[in-house]
Structures are given as C-alpha cells and as structure tokens.
Amino acid sequence: MLHRRNFLKFGSIGAGTFLSGNLFGKGYPAPGKKPLVIATWDAGINANKNAWKVLRSGGRSLDAVEQGVMTTESEISCCVGLGANPDRDGHVTLDASIMDEHGNCGSVAFLERIKHPISVARMVMEKTPHVMLVGEGAQQFALSQGFELESGKLSGDAQQAYDEWLKKSEYKPKVNIENTNGTAFAPRKLSNGAWNHDTIGMLAIDANGNLSGSCTTSGMAFKMRGRVGDSPIIGSGLYVDNEIGAAVSTGLGEEVIKICGCHLVVQLMAAGMSPAEACKAAIAKIISRNGAKAKDLQVAFIALNKKGEFGTHAVQKGFNYAVCYSDDKNELIDSAYTMK
Ligand code: SD4
From the alpha carbon of 95, which atom of ligand 1 is closest? Predict the structure, then answer.
C-alpha cells in the first residue's frame, strides 16, 4: 500500500499538481452522495437509469452495476456488445469484468456470440472457483448456464465500418480519440451525430455504502484476433476495495495494463488522495511513460470512494461520464484532462 508521505514521490508530479486546476471537470456536483452510480461516456446516461432503479429501491451495488451495463450491451447500434465493431478477421469478441464489495471478482475475455458478457462474468465469479474464463471455454460455460448462442452476424453499422476499414486494412490501433475523425480506429459516429465508444465502465455505491464495479467492451475495433485489453483484467480495467474505493478505465487498454491502472488508482486513494487526484496521478504516469507519444493515445479513469465522492481524469479532451444520484439527477459531465 502507498502511504501519504510516499505518494508525493509518485511519478513526476507533486502536491501542487493535485491542488491546482479544475480536477473534477465542468458541472461537478456536490461530492459525497449515497447511493450513486457513475459510468463512462454518454452511453452511461441510459445505463445509469437501470442501475439507479436498483439503487433507489435499496438494492445491492453489484446488481446495479450488472443491470446498468447490460443496458448498453443490449443497444445493438452501440459499440459495446454484439452490435460492436469486429476484430480484423470480422468477428466480434467481447471482454467483461465485475467485482463486488467482498473483493470477489469474475471476468470473461475473447467471448463470442453471447449477448451479455457481464452476466457471464458474474457467473464466473459466483458459480466457479475461478476468476477468468476466455474464448471457447467462456462460451461453453455461458451455454451451460443457459445463455443462448447468438448469430455472430455483424450489425449493419459494424458491417459498414468494417467494409470501410477493409479497403486499407491499416493496423493503427487508436481508441477514443474523437478528433481523428475519419480513421477507422476512432470511435464510430452514429447517424444521430453522437460518438459511440467501445466500452462502458460503471461504479456504484449503494445505500449501505457498499461499492461494486463493472466493465464490458468489444475492445479495440479491428484488433488482431485474440487481442484482449484492460477491461477483463482485474486490477487493470477495474478494481474495487470496499474499504477504500473503486476505479474503472476506458481507452487504450495496453497502457492501462502496463501500470495496473485501476489498482493503482485505488491504492492512491488509500494513500489519501481524492478520487480525482488519484485518477490524475495515474494518468500522469501514463503520460510520463509515453512522452511525446501520449498525444496519440487516450485513457481515462473514473473513481468513487467510500464516502460517495467521485472523480475522473483523462489524457486528453473528449472523455465524458454520466453521474446519477437521484431520480432527477443523471448528468453527462466533461472530464478534466491533462494534455491541452
Ligand atoms: C480496450 N479499454 O479493450 C478498452 C477499449 C475502450 O472505449 O475503452 N474503448 O482496450
């Protein structure tokens, strides 16, 4: 565990960095709400609605984060779930993870043709002695639990994006950098003009003050077959410590894995940082590792602590998140970021 006197040495940043600037992004509501749910990207708004139904009736945060992201997995025009962009061989492969207030966790990776990877991840957690199942084995397990094998046909949107990518078949993985509109690896723009991303990560604190988190993704569009990112890796794409806080990430998963990102964010909160400070420090680590190349990548963390305080930070502009803590408060907020 990091202690307060040591965290100041962490990376290339000092206390002044944390205390300056708007750490929370525009429209930051009052901290310390309970229950509360927070999710990545604009798809988080819809996802939060279902998570909130669980939380407002006194339900468990674990149920909230599962049902919340299932909403996004069901939106077939979305880049999460079976409607998502395929890998470079034309197959949609899905990763998901979930973690509860007892430190139990489950995940699936490289899962094909199953509609709700997050629920399979939960079953791995609850019905097996394991944490992670992948590929064919994960699919076999899902079928044994009553999940149906879906067709494997690409959605119309995804087919169109894939056909476009195939014209050049350039392998230049980039995730969530909206200002590179036109590159096949940037998020897809939907017909309604909204950006659509490949991942939803969600954290919740329930009325009992218990924390849980979930993450589900199709990973990087047109990735190499078999590529797995941070989202199903506990400690990288998701981490929950019910005594301290929780974190989830989105963006270029390889960079998150290299710093065990979400575990790091939670440890920084344990050392005394606020959620926003912890996210900012983890992002600083990614930026310092990458030097000038950091401008070509995007990573964002969201974090929630035991008091119901939340914070986020991204490498660059463009990341937003949705926060809901009452029947009429479910808002989309632009995240703070480092690279101007
Ligand atoms: C991954 N972190 O597979 C995911 C991608 C992502 O919005 O967050 N996309 O690397």
Answer: 3
Instruction: Write the burial class of residue 104 (CB in 10 Å: 0-12 exposed, 13-18 middle, 19+ buried).
Output: middle
Give me 319's structure tokens: 């990341």
17 in a structural domain: no
Query: 118 C-alpha vs ligand 1 centroid, how far in Å?
Result: 15
Characterize the bridge pairing of strands 188-189 and 132-134.
unpaired
How many other CB atoms are found less than 10 A from the CB of residue 182? Answer: 8
Is 199 a known active-site residue?
Answer: yes
Paired residues of 196 in beta bridges: 188
* Ligand 1 neighbour 199 (Cβ under 6 A): yes
Query: How many CA atoms are closer than 13 Å to the CA of 304, on its beta-carbon side?
Result: 36
The Cα–Cα gap between 38 and 177 comes to: 21
Instruction: Please count the structural domains in the chain.
Output: 1
- The model's pLDDT over 271-311, given as tens digits with 9 standing for 90+, comes to 999 999 999 999 999 999 999 999 889 999 999 999 999 99
Q: What is the pTM of this model?
A: 0.89
Position in ligand 1 atom list of the atom nearest CA 199? 7
Residue 201 CA: which ligand 1 atom is closest? 8
Domain hosting 240: range is 37-334
Spatial separation of the C-alpha atoms in residues 304 and 257, rounded to whole Å: 20
Q: With respect to residue 14, please indicate whether it lies within any of the assigned structural domains.
A: no
**β-pair type (238-241, 245-251):** antiparallel
Among 69, 93, 216, 220, which residue has the most ligand 1 atoms within 8 Å of its CB, making it the best to mutate? 220
Q: What is the pLDDT of residues 202-225, one digit of tens each?
A: 999 999 999 999 999 999 888 999
Angle ∠(277,279,281) on CA atoms, nearest 5? 70
Residue 289: CATH number of its domain: 3.60.20.30
Percent of the chain clearing pLDDT 70 (strictly above): 83
Residue 66 domain-assigned (yes or no): yes
218 Cβ inside 6 Å of ligand 1: no
Q: Is 247 within a domain?
A: yes
79 CA distance to ligand 1 middle (Å): 10
